Structures are given as C-alpha cells and as structure tokens.
Design the sequence.
C-alpha cells in the first residue's frame, strides 16, 4: 500500500456514495410501507370493492398472511426504514467531514463516529421496540395478527465497532496534534 491516506479518502468517497444510496432506499422503503398500510386501511371491510371482492378477501385468498400481520410488518418496515435513513444521513455527514478534513484522525471526526456508534445501537433497538408495541396493539385490535419476528442483533456489534473506531481516531488526532 503506497499511500494509506489516499486509500482512506477513496473509501470515504465510496462510503458517502453508499450512504446516499442507503438513505434514498430507506426513504423509498418507508414510503412504500406507508402506502401499503394506507391501501389496507382504504380497503377495510368492503370500503374498496372490485367485482364484489374487497382487498381483504384478495389477501386472505391469495396469501398465507393475515391483514393484521401485514399491517404489523409494514409498520415495522416504516420504523426500520426511518432508522436506516437517519443512520445513513449521519454516515454521509461523517464521510463528507472526513473528506473535507483529509484524514479520519480529527477530534471532530472522532466525535462524529462516536455519535454514529451510539445511534447505530439505539435507533434499531428503538425501531424494534416500536415494532413490538405496534404488533401487540394490532394483535389485540385485529383478528389473525401473528407474532412479529424482528432481528437487529448486528446493529449492536456495528455500533460497538464505531465506538472503538472513535477511540482510535481520537488517539490519532492527539498524535497529530503532538507532532505539530
């Protein structure tokens, strides 16, 4: 590796692009989930009929999933996509600041990656909590709503990795300050 700092800058550019794509995909996913929930609400109990069949009849006839389970799944999708959009926005901001500074070894960069680590742990857990609450409410309110399976265990590991990186970046920033 001839110039590691140049490699880091290239990776930062790639990270910024991937973060932007993840942000857009998360927003699109959240919007599609809201549209799905809305379409189920509009088609409630015969409000929307096609040839004598309502949307609930089509869903129950052609799928193995109840309407309540679909609503819970789409609500979980909204929460997860919203958390993903926020994380992607913070990641993009970190990569942009790193590219502007020309190095990851700054105190501001260490603060940013620390914040990203905390958010990477907290936001998916909050989305899961909201998903479980929504599922519990829908299971009580709607017949056939099943238990929701949401897994975000990888987020904790990734968040811890960001927290460790923030310590390394802060140490690098302190070393750079000493050499100046």
Sequence:
């Amino acid at each position: 590796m001839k110039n590691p700092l140049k490699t880091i800058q290239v990776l930062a550019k790639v990270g910024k692009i991937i973060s932007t794509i993840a942000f857009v995909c998360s927003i699109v996913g959240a919007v599609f989930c809201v549209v799905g929930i809305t379409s189920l609400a509009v088609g409630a109990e015969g409000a929307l009929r096609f040839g004598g069949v309502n949307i609930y009849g089509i869903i129950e006839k052609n799928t193995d999933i109840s309407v309540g389970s679909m609503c819970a799944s789409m609500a979980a999708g909204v929460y997860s996509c919203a958390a993903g959009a926020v994380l992607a926005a913070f990641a993009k901001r970190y990569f942009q600041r790193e590219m502007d500074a020309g190095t990851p070894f700054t105190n501001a960069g260490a603060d940013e990656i620390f914040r990203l680590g905390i958010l990477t742990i907290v936001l998916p857990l909050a989305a899961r909590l909201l998903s479980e609450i929504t599922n519990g409410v829908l299971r009580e309110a709607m017949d056939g709503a099943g238990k929701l399976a949401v897994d975000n265990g990888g987020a904790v590991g990734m968040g811890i990795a960001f927290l460790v990186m923030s310590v390394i970046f802060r140490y690098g920033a302190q070393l750079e300050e000493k050499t100046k």
In short: Residues 4-42 form the longest helix (39 residues).
